[in-house]
Amino acid sequence: MATQEITIPSHLDIENAFNLIGKHINSTPVLTSRSVNSILGCNAYLKCENFQRVGAFKFRGATHAIMRLGIDEAQSGVITHSSGNHAAALALAARQKGIPAYIVMPENAPEIKKKAVAGYGGIITFCPPTQTDREQTMLRIKSQTGATFIHPYDNFNVVCGQGTAALELMQQQPDIDMVIAPVGGGGLLSGTAAFIKGRFPHVKVYGAEPKNADDAYRSLRDHTIYPSVKPQTIADGLLTSLSPLTYTILSQHCDGILTVSEQSIIEAMRMVWERMKIIIEPSSAVPVAAIMENAQLFRNKRVGVIISGGNVDLNHLPWQG
Questions:
Q1: 54 Cβ neighbours under 8 A, 6+ residues apart
Q2: I need a labelling partner for 192 at 20 to 30 A (CA). Which of 5, 180, 247, 308 fits?
Q3: Cβ–Cβ < 8 Å for 104, 80
Q4: Could you give the CA distance from residue 215 to residue 199 in angstroms, rounded to a whole number?
Q5: pLDDT digit string, tens, across residues 33-54
Q6: Using one digit for the tens of pLDDT, what is the confidence trace for 168-211?
Q7: Under DSSP, is residue 45 helix (H, G, I), strand (E, B) or coil?
Q8: Helix (H, G, I), strand (E, B), or coil: what is residue 84?
Q9: How many other CB atoms sit within 10 Å of the CB of residue 144?
Q10: Mean pLDDT over each residue of the chain, to the nearest integer
Q11: Dihedral of CA 199/202/207/208: which sign?
């Protein structure tokens, strides 16, 4: 594949993004716990994007992409197809800018996500839950409105925005040995890796992924982008495959991807809830589970863990019968 045509962000691009969006996002805390550290066998510093606006890191990338639009582009609004946090993030970022956000959502999206997007002012169009239907519906509305398509992760400005979480982490906890983040489409991990390797090349960067949705692991191993085919995992934020942009960044900057079992994800999520009293979603528990399953790799290290979000349906928790 012709990766040489893809422009990937540098740490300077991510620092510029932070300077632009810093006043509009939450600076999220880094939390640590002696009991969690004892269980994990390392010093884990959790960068808590569950406290970000819309409850997830996605608000960083959506805000940055919208703030980089030209005046003419912005007037026509933005559009995306998403069933989750990116839809909510784009709707809120657009409302802050005073422009419309057209959101194509599959009709089987969780009710809680539909309500969130509507509550942030997104103009929702429902479609059948296939990738083809989502894309065709988006293209039809885009042609009618002239809105600018903002991809959830195959977008330079979105990736730069997501990388600001790692920038803040290193400001708050500068003597870290390794950073680990979950990977689905790769926007968060790409932004993290691009910033860390540019500014702190000695720090290791790992991705964490469910074994049942291991397309990113296989893609980097075999040097080709594998699609995500009917993944069966409770980590519902990690169901998408890498894009040309995120694949290219991770091929250059990621030290490896660790895959974890569903049981470990549940155990890690419950441990963080019980020991740290913070609500994290299953996708956020995946990097914690990776530390649990790879104790030797992380032993006695200072590990930054990007907690991607905290949007959980409290009526359907994974440890409930």
A1: 85, 88, 89, 92, 116, 120, 311
A2: 5
A3: yes
A4: 28
A5: 999 999 999 999 999 999 999 9
A6: 999 999 999 999 999 999 999 999 999 999 999 999 999 999 99
A7: strand
A8: coil
A9: 10
A10: 94
A11: negative
Q: What distance in Å separates the CA atoms of residue 293 and residue 108, rounded to the nearest whole number? A: 33
The confidence band for 3, taking pLDDT boundaries of 50, 70 and 90, is very low
* Size (the chain), residues: 321
Spell out the domains of the chain, with CATH numbers in brackets: 3-56+155-307 (3.40.50.1100), 77-146 (3.40.50.1100)
Any idea what DSSP says for residue 225? P
As to burial, measured by CB atoms within 10 angstroms (0-12 exposed, 13-18 middle, 19+ buried), residue 279 is middle
pTM: 0.95
Q: Which phi and psi angles does 263 have, rounded to 5°?
A: -60, -40
Confidence of residue 2 (pLDDT cuts 50, 70, 90): very low
Using an 8 Å Cβ cutoff, are 55 and 85 in contact? yes
Tokens representing 296 are: 């030797």
